[in-house]
Amino acid sequence: MIIGHKKNIYFLQKSIDNNKLSHAYLFYGPAHLGKTTIAMDFLFKILCEQGGKCGKCVHCQQLEKNIHLDVYFINKEENKKNITIEQIRILQEKIIKRSFYGSYKIILINQADDLSVEASNCLLKSLEEPNPKTIFILISENIKSLPETIISRTQILKFLPVSTEEIVNYFEKQFNLETKQGFELAKISTNKPGIAITFFQNKNLLNKYKKQIQEFINFLQKNLNEKFQFIEKILPTKNEFLENVKILQNILSQLDLIIRDLILIKNFLPTFIVHSFLKNELEKLAKKYNENQLIQILKTIKKSKKYLFVNANPKLVFENLILEI
Ligand SMILES: [Zn+2]
Q1: What is the distance in A from the centroid of ligand 1 to the CA of 72?
Q2: pLDDT tens for each residue of 219-253
Q3: Higher pLDDT residue, 133 or 101?
Q4: Fewer CB within 10 A of the terminal residue: the chain, N end or C end?
Q5: CATH 3.40.50.300 domain position(s) in the chain
Q6: Ligand 1 centre and the CA of 99: distance in Å?
Q7: Under CATH, what is the fold of the domain 6-158?
Q8: What is the pLDDT of residues 70-83, one digit of tens each?
């Protein structure tokens, strides 16, 4: 079952019903919203002989086993930095041949942001001169990393976080979950269904996450010296550069959410905080800052993310941030 995104689902269904399928789609938006799930559902609807997941036709059966002969999945290969031009070339050789079932050939490119420059240039040819009855679906978390030439040749569908109500309703219907618990899952997942479901299914992971947030709150209460000591602990020098970049990206996202919670508390809106399980601790921490300071910290977090994006040293970036928090 898909949670939310009714407008996009309606749009895709209409393009099937009106026989107006585009030769290329771009689904973009943050991770864990359900873009791939909706793309897969779209595949079923296009190919299934009954127009949905009938489960009986050859298309459904092969799609379910991930072995449909007219469907191609392009993912970044393990240990590779990008989706390579070779992968795109091999794909292009395959798709110029006749469709196996005389129906559509569909190519799903997961994390299209990972296309190398050469690979996107090569892909561009297929988008500029599309083969008949061939559909590309590109999935992207960061549309800015895609060349304008690619974007302009696709039908763009933007994905946003799902409403709290839709997430609460889903858990209520599917698992008989009480509204309060559904609400907490919606908040803690920042309205991303993929995360909400993972936390619901994996309590260990949820507890680990909660513990991490608790640690950050403790960290924010330490003095400058102690904070600096903490850097070596979480960003060890022995780690590889990219490993520390990833860790810090994660820290920045969590810190961002904590600071936003503090701002909500300052504005007497505690019902809307993400980390309601730590409401008391957050209320205590909020007293340490005034609102302007918190807004300033958010700006610094944003800047730090940008620095990381252009390969700045994660330790230096974090040190800089610590001076402000
Ligand atoms: Zn079917």
Answers
A1: 18
A2: 999 999 999 888 888 898 888 888 899 899 999 99
A3: 133
A4: N
A5: 6-158
A6: 17
A7: Rossmann fold (3.40.50)
A8: 999 999 998 888 99
Does domain 163-201 fall into CATH 1.10.3470?
no
For CA atoms 250, 256, 262, 264, give the dihedral sign: negative
pLDDT for res 234 = 87
Q: Write 13-18 long-range contacts (CB < 8 A, 24+).
A: 13/45, 16/45, 16/46, 16/51
Q: Is 272 helix (H, G, I), strand (E, B) or coil?
A: helix
Ligand 1 centroid distance, CA of 96 (Å): 25
Q: Which residues of the chain are in CATH 1.10.8 domains?
A: 163-201
What is the predicted pLDDT for the residue at 97? 86
Residue-wise pLDDT tens digits, 131-177: 889 999 999 999 998 999 999 999 999 999 999 999 999 999 999 99
Ligand 1 centroid from CA 23, angstroms: 22
* 105 and 123 Cβ atoms separated by less than 8 Å: no
* 243: number of Cβ within 10 Å: 13
Quote the ligand 1 centre to 243 CA distance (angstroms).
43
Q: How far is the centre of ligand 1, averaged over its atoms, from the C-alpha of 213 (Å)?
A: 45
